[in-house]
Amino acid sequence: MKEFHFDPNQSYxxxxxxxxxDIFEGQGVKGAGGEFALSDDGMMLTENGFGNALAIDEGxxxxxxxxxxxxNGIATKNxxxxxxxxxxxxxxxxxxxxxxxxxxxELNRLYGFRKFVVVVPSIAIREGVLKNLHITHxxxxxxxxxxxxxxxxxxxKRVSNLRNFALSSAIQVLVLNIDAxxxxxxxxxxxxxxLSGKSPIAFIQATRPIVIVDEPQNMxxxxxxxxxxxxxxxxxxxxxxxxxxLYNLVYSLNPVDAYDLxxxxxxxxxxxxxxxxxxxxxxKVESVGHSGKNKIVAKLWLDVNTATGxxxxxxxxxxxxxxxxxTLSGEREVYRAVRVEEIDFQNQAVSLSTGQRxxxxxxxxxxxxxxxxVMIRKAVEEHLKxxxxxxxxxxxxxxxxxxxxxxxYRSYDDAGIPVKGKFAQWFEExxxxxxxxxxxxxxxxxxxxxxxxxxxxxxxxxxxKDTGGETQADNDTYALIMRDKERLLDRATPLRxxxxxxxxxxxxxxxxxxxxxxxxxxxxxxxxxxEIGRGLRLCVxxxxxxxxxxxxxxxxxxxxxxxxxxxAALQQEIEADxxxxxxxxxxxxxxxxxxxxxKGFALDPAFLEIWDRIKHRTQYSxxxxxDELIALAGKAVKEMxxxxxxxxxxxxxxxxxxxxxxxxxxLVRESATPVYGSGSVPASESxxxxxxxxxxxxxxxxLPYGGRDASATLPDVVSYIQDKTELTRRTVFDxxxxxxxxxxxxxxxxxxMDSAVGAxxxxxxxxxxxxxxxxxxxxxxxxMTLFDNTDLEFYLNDFxxxxxxxDKTIYENYIPLDSSVENQFAKDCETSENVxxxxxxxxxxxxxxxxxxxxxxxxVIFQGERKIYFVAETKSTGQExxxxxxxxxxxxxxxxxxxxxVEYRQVSTVYGLLQI
Length: 916
Fold this sequence. Notes:
Shape: globular
Distance between the termini: 55 Å
Oligomer: single chain
Structural class: alpha/beta
Number of strands: 39
């Protein structure tokens, strides 16, 4: 694969971008690019730098923030702005980095901002940002007319580069690790002779950069917060899936939203646990700690004799009185002569009389090796099934194994020669056995040794080693992981199974990870959200195109715990992090079912009767009267909320002192003074200045293209709205004149223009759909092969319909459904004597509309006094539809009006089909 392709029209990403850009409405393009002078001390030398400048006051910013929050459904208890920090919440895998990088381009395009600093908390995230800057650069250059942008990672050995950051008039993006500037002794904070005695950070401060903080929850200590503030930011934009503090939240896409919208992979758990393994001396170290001031104890899990048989229980041991595991186990013979000889608090470990030393989380006995071998087998089996199915779609499948001890994958003999660890041996044995099965003949291109490899940090002799994830050795490993990203997606590259240290988990960000298996020997502090986060991104094909098919995008987690425990732990994490319930969204792999089509359904006369009537593809045209659009859109613009001028607010407070309440205050006086230097002018002082062709038509105050010095401050309003709505200049002009709100343009041009665009678009879409017409496209139909090309799998739930009478439908076993209304509809279709044939229309059966594709629900043949062919949309009785749903239903009705003998109905029951 040569490169990734990016979709620039993902609505949720555009909403996240707009949530930030709208904070600065009223700023104007020319007010943001501030020039400043850089003078060398003791020398007659001055250089002009380019930075950011804010032309609107915090009162206007707060009004903008509230408008954004209301649009995005974000409630707040705050009565005012929480400083110039703004939070964007986006679930892992939904393109957070893409969003903030594109926001940089948008902020430059709209307001002229040009200096940006991306602050990251770790090496892994820094390498990820750098990789994204590289792979998105061409994409953004095509979107933004080759806007001049430079980016680099801060290097303390090349601090003189910061001078160029300050002096350049191009968009500058500096990636900066928090640890590089959080302490006074950092190079960036010390005076530097190469910079005429200035500290390097001064060049950043002078530009008033917009600071973008990636994963800000890792930067909430007082030291790190002060360090970020010391950059002298114009504002701080904070992006994360797991914020600790939500300052001025402007956009939220939480895990539930992302999952339900299909923006990340579905999650299923394949549990692998040992059962009834009580025939040897099982010991697991739960914890090591203090009991009182002078006593160290350990909590162990043992298999203990009870009145009802042997059960696994937790016991507390020490080295004084309670150290004999034979006694503590209820005198089970397998524990005879097994004692605790040492409890090492410093190293969190327990030594046994058998010579075994177990760290916290480690076990002996209990089928540990057997369980891990089965986990590897499950991962390989699932991988091969998916690879065989997805190969014809050009999608490469990757499986990721996280381990906590490198020696289990690769170790070294006395001569320093690398040898395979137990995981590598088990994997090769399992893979060689599984891939020989007839179903995988097409996958036997590579040997077992070729399809797996390890990504681990190395010591200075090149030997792999265990690390913590933040060392210089890890730095090189992260760079290798990122550099190999495209290579790993190339199906010609044999590597498919990747072993990596669990400490390096943040470095993995490959969209085609479909299986994750954690083979830790010690207790893992890896959160479930971190574990699944490495495989949540939607996959790509070998052309770099993103795949949105939910039946393909499924992440299988092979876990050494039962499904219920895994799901409960993940649910608790999401509720703690985001305050939202995630219940029911994590699936048990053992409840996955494949939907089978009935053999021969394509030749069934009943199926062919209705399919031949509805299979034709269509195209639409829209017709509306321009005069009607002008009248309705003019009314919509007229009814927009009030437009406020940028202003400077003055508040005088009285101060009170009391013994009980301490220092308090009360409001004495508050005033706001409009500011006209930021793109607005007093209405009484503007002469407007229409173009000659438009001036004769104006009977109300003219649209501003100029006026007294207005040509330097007021934008071309008509052109701006024309570009956003694709209407003609004349139509836009007439709408604005009809609205009677022309003087509002003088109050705050940018705020007025954006509000008007929203009002006009809404009216335009409603009119387009009211006048929509469909025509069949000659020779274009939905081919029957689409049924063969789609392998549909789903998870059983309360709404799934199990087919009892397959002769009446195209399905042999199940129909996956999403609501009780659909479930009852399917049951009634199956049992009703009046329904001759029915089936759920596939997801690929779509009707094109101006506001997105529409997938109708059902095709039904109703046999009464006469045979009627229905396409049905099922909704609950009294269900209030969203405006977009209502418009799509209108389009569905218009589409099927072009099909002979086909009736389209929105119903809640089967019997509603016959009600007029």
